[in-house]
Design a protein that fits this description.
The structure holds 2 protein chains of 2 kinds.
Chain A lengths: L8 E3 L3 E6 L2 E6 L4 E6 H8 L7 H13 L6 H20 L3 E3 H6 L1
Antiparallel strand pairs in A: 1-5, 2-3, 3-4
Helix pairs in contact in A: 1-2, 2-3
Chain B lengths: L2 H5 L7 E5 L25 H14 L3 E5 L9 H10 L4 E5 L6 H9 L3 E6 L5 H8 L3 H13 L5 E8 L7 H10 L3 E6 L6 H8 L3 H13 L4 E2 L8 H4 L22 E4 L4 E3 L12 E2 L5 H7 L1 H8 L11 H4 L4 H8 L11 H5 L1
Parallel strand pairs in B: 1-2, 1-8, 2-3, 3-4, 4-5, 5-6, 6-7
Antiparallel strand pairs in B: 8-9, 9-10
Classes of the chains: A alpha+beta, B alpha/beta.
The complex binds iron/sulfur cluster (SF4) (2 copies).
Chain lengths: 105, 346
């Protein structure tokens, strides 16, 4: 599933998320699937209750990672692009779902 | 999952195997926990619930319940319910003999439970030779009853041995007929499995046959430690990268899992129950604390398999099963004696 920047997303039903030193883990009992998550992704999952869009969460994650540091615009653009790809990958793996899809389920 | 994540130490096990009782109504030839009669000092209901609370608070993803036969314990379904109500999914293994209509119905009403019914042969003669008289009929009756309930996942679990290797197609068919999935488990020489190992364990060519069969049946799941067959994919000798087996690809003992016995002793894995591997007892220290501080677990997390360095399959095998290495080769740091790499290279 390709996620668009304006899509709102949430953790898909049945997935449990846990923080780890390297980032985190997502586990789904019915399928037994286990997915390794990087730190920004765990943050993007746990901090979004379904009200933020992909683009909004990407901005929040980038702001959180940057803190008060000055970061080049090009670096920020790359980070945004990368996060979009990673979130779409999580959507493909079924870990997150578009809120509209969840409402339909 | 890559071993590098496990080496750092997870905040909690992914799964904990909890053997709820030693009591069993069968005497299977390969029983890993050498179960039979109930033993003194098994955890009572209050202790069991405190354990579940600790596992839930740690963030353990699910409990893998075994025994003995869980249904021999009168409060088994209460404990299952208690765990799932605390957000802890469960999976359990049963020989099926004590599953009746009422128990099946009650199981169907508990969400987040995977049920594994054990069957080690596709006919009465083969199965009962290993699991005991009446066990084939009992398992099939249980499958029948459970298949009529809305259970999350129903599995037929088979320990592959020399006796049933030629029956995999029929076992697969039995599972499908009951709306269940077949799960193949590797025989390991623990408990009574040590005495039956020579008679039952597979040789190299037989392992190759299992691998070929598994790659032809991608919907069949494998128990942990069958990742050792990945060497046949890593060398490209069989079906190349497409032939990786699904599932966990490294030994999780003390790293992703641990085992709690009916009396509360904690070990790195259900197949490594020697006193030298005891991490303590939950009556003295909660698992949450033991997981962080036990030198036994720390040792397993550090273990590197020297003989396997440079192996093309290392990332998908990690040196194999520590229990097989320990019981057959004498060291948890030895290469798995059933390594199939030479076969792949031949
Ligand atoms: S050499 Fe070691 S890592 Fe390689 S296949 Fe054999 S046991 Fe596995
Ligand atoms: S020792 Fe063997 S059975 Fe135990 S966790 Fe490791 S691979 Fe699995």
């Amino acid at each position: 599933m390709e996620l668009a920047p304006e899509d709102r997303y949430q953790i898909a039903p049945g997935w449990r998320i846990r923080r780890e030193a390297f980032g985190g883990l997502a586990y789904h009992h019915r399928t037994g699937r286990l997915v390794v998550l990087s730190s920004p992704l765990v943050w993007a999952l746990l901090q979004n209750d379904g009200t933020a869009t992909v683009a909004e969460m990407v901005e929040k994650v980038v702001a959180e990672a940057r803190g008060t540091r000055a970061v080049a615009a090009e670096t920020l653009a790359r980070a945004r692009e990368r996060l979009l790809v990673l979130l779409s990958d999580l959507a493909n793996k079924g870990v997150i779902t578009r809120c509209e899809d969840a409402a339909r389920d | 999952m890559e071993a590098k994540y496990l080496a750092q130490g997870l905040v909690a096990p992914i799964t904990v195997t909890w053997e709820v009782t030693y009591a069993c109504n069968l005497r299977c030839a390969h029983c890993l926990s050498d179960s039979g009669p109930k033993r003194a000092g098994e955890l009572d209901g209050d202790e069991a619930r405190a354990l579940i609370d600790d596992l839930a608070a740690m963030g353990v993803f699910y409990i893998n319940i075994g025994g003995g036969e869980p249904f021999v314990r009168p409060d088994f379904l209460d404990l299952l319910e208690y765990a799932t109500q605390r957000g802890l999914p469960c999976q359990f293994s049963t020989n099926g003999m004590l599953v009746d209509e009422e128990r099946a119905r009650r199981l169907g009403s508990i969400g987040d439970v995977r049920v594994q019914v054990s069957l080690d042969g596709a006919d009465r003669e083969t199965n009962d030779l290993i699991r005991g008289r009446g066990s084939y009929d009992g398992a099939l009756r249980a499958l029948d009853l459970l298949s009529r309930q809305p259970i999350d996942e129903l599995w037929l679990n088979t320990v592959v041995t020399r006796k049933n290797l030629d029956q995999l197609d029929r076992l697969y068919a039995i599972a499908r007929e009951h709306g269940a999935r077949l799960r193949l488990a590797r025989l390991r020489p623990s408990g009574r499995g040590r005495a039956s190992w020579e008679a039952l364990h597979l040789g190299p060519e037989e392992h190759r046959a299992v691998y070929q069969w598994l790659t032809a049946h991608p919907d069949v799941t494998t128990g942990d430690s069958y990742f050792i067959l990945n060497a046949l994919a890593a060398t490209g000798a069989m079906s190349g990268a497409a032939g990786w087996l699904h599932g966990f690809n490294v030994c999780g003992a003390g790293r992703a899992t641990c085992c709690i016995t009916p009396t509360g002793e904690v070990y790195p894995c259900a197949f490594l129950l020697g006193t030298e591997w005891s991490a303590g007892n939950i009556r003295k220290m909660p698992l949450s604390q033991m997981w962080e501080t036990s030198p036994v677990f720390a040792g397993f997390r550090r273990t590197q398999i020297g003989e396997c360095q440079g192996c093309p399959a290392y990332a998908h095998c990690g040196g194999g099963c520590r229990a097989v290495s320990y019981y057959v080769a004498g060291s948890i740091a030895a290469k798995d004696p059933e390594c199939v790499l030479p076969l792949a290279r031949a």
